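Bumping my old thread because nobody answered last time. Still need a sequence for this structure:
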């Protein structure tokens, strides 16, 4: 018992999915220990943090001028270094309990398309937040590990990971990425597209949280068997009064068709650029759909229709990448060749 306590104080290892929309943390002892929005509420006058995570997301669209709720990550990479560092530090402190003699080690997943400068920003922000060792792993590789795909074999495995800021399309073979296509179009762009559609067609302004709620409730990429409707509340552009409108799935499908089309194009481009032998494997095994965007109704059907390849959606697409990052952290020796730093 005493030895267990001692080893628990020597510093823990954590895996992190540092996402544009949400940040998740995984502990070998407890599994997923944190899942919170990547949002920070900042006081402009004092430059102090007012809230982080779930509480800060409630601030979005509801703050006075002196307070702003910001997302320190954009398109999967760090846009505000100092705020990101503070956010990571807060999440780590919230996760780790008890005395720690040493700082924790961490594996963080990153998009495939980020630059060396962007990788360095992730590493330094984690180090300054109190992490003593940082390893990076690419999101498609992490997703494939999380879904238990046989990526160490000479077989083509295709992963489509749709997050908040980026969509990662990759073909993986022999524990490495054979071809990758990363587009900075994903869930956030769908939310913005819904906001624009409502404004242009109904002359009503709705907030970011409201558009996301609509997308989750009735959003779809493919015609549904039955009509879905929901009420959304906003502000009339004409007279500034509160206004309620009813939206259906067909309207939302129309509003998000451009970002959905960009995702389909990324899949098709990856298929065009991948060697024939690997494409044969993908055709036989199907492609893996992961990330929060995988929950968009009918997206799997549309991808299959447009690519001619069957689609398998992970059982828990929101945590696929984190689970894979956690596995890589627990067996660093085996997954060492897959780390990108």
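Sorry it took so long. Here it is:
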């Amino acid at each position: 018992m005493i030895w267990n306590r001692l080893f628990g104080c020597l510093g823990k290892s954590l895996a992190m999915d540092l996402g544009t929309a949400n940040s998740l943390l995984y502990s070998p002892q407890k599994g997923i220990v944190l899942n919170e929005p990547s949002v920070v509420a900042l006081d402009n006058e004092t430059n102090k943090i007012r809230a982080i995570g779930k509480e800060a997301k409630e601030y979005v669209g509801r703050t006075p001028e002196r307070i702003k709720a910001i997302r320190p990550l954009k398109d999967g990479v760090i846009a505000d270094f100092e705020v990101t560092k503070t956010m990571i530090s807060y999440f780590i402190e919230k996760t780790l309990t008890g005395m720690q003699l040493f700082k924790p080690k961490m594996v963080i997943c990153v998009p495939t398309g980020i630059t060396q400068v962007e990788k360095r920003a992730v590493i330094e922000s984690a180090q300054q937040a109190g992490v003593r060792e940082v390893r990076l792993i690419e999101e498609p590789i992490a997703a494939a590990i999380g879904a238990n795909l046989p990526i160490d074999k000479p077989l083509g495995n295709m992963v489509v990971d749709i997050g908040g800021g980026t969509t990662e399309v990759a073909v993986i073979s022999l524990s490495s990425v054979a071809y990758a296509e990363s587009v900075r179009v994903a869930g956030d762009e769908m939310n913005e597209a819904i906001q624009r559609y409502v404004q242009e067609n109904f002359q009503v302004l709705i907030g970011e949280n409201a558009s996301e709620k609509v997308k989750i409730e009735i959003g779809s990429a493919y015609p549904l068997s039955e009509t879905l409707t929901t009420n959304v509340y906003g502000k009339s552009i004409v007279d500034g009064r509160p206004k309620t409108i009813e939206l259906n799935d067909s309207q939302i499908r129309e509003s998000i068709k451009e970002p959905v089309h960009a995702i389909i194009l990324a899949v098709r481009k990856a298929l065009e650029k991948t060697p024939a032998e690997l494409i044969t494997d993908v055709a036989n095994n199907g492609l893996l759909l992961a990330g929060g965007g995988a929950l968009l109704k009918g997206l799997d059907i549309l991808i299959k229709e447009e690519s001619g390849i069957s689609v398998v959606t992970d059982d828990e697409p929101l945590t696929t990448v984190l689970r894979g990052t956690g596995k890589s952290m627990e067996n660093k020796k085996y997954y060492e060749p897959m780390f990108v730093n």
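The CA atoms of residues 19 and 69 lie 16 Å apart. Let me know if any region looks off to you.
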